[in-house]
């Protein structure tokens, strides 16, 4: 079985986070998504330290749909350089990992 991934994305508003989640799940490039937040983020941007309130999105996808998920996020996100980090899921409940693969399978 090919690996599954958890993809982390941050968004500046809950509405934007929800829009990304709905688009990803509707297009089946993510089997599921959760929103955590608000969170406090601290980061370097254009030469200075920034602080902002953001919402963390956690999406589950298959290796086959990962590139499409990244493209969707880049196309729908308001940030110039959105956080998109894909972490391979190395262990998990086999039924859950199979669910990710099944729900992100291409449909005719």
Task: Describe this protein's structure.
The chain has 108 residues and is an alpha+beta fold. The protein has one domain: Alpha-Beta Plaits. Helices cover 31% and strands 40% of the residues. Strands 2-3-1-4 form a four-stranded antiparallel β-sheet. Helix 1 packs antiparallel against helix 2. The radius of gyration is 14 Å and the shape is elongated. The two termini are 21 Å apart.
What's the helix and strand layout?
Elements: E1 4-11, H1 14-26, E2 32-45, E3 48-62, H2 66-76, E4 84-89, H3 94-103
Short structural summary:
The chain contains 3 helices and 4 strands; from the N terminus they run βαββαβα. It has helices at residues 14-26, 66-76, 94-103, and strands spanning 4-11, 32-45, 48-62, 84-89.
């Amino acid at each position: 079985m090919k690996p599954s991934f958890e993809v982390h994305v941050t968004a500046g508003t809950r509405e934007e986070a929800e829009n990304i989640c709905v688009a990803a799940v509707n297009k089946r490039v993510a089997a599921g998504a959760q929103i955590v937040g608000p969170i406090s983020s601290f980061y370097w941007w254009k030469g200075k330290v920034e602080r902002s309130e953001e919402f963390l999105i956690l999406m589950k996808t298959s290796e086959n749909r990962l590139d499409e998920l990244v493209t969707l996020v880049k196309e729908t996100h308001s940030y110039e350089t959105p956080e998109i980090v894909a972490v391979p899921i190395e262990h998990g409940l086999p039924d859950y990992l199979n669910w990710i693969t099944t729900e992100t399978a291409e449909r005719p």
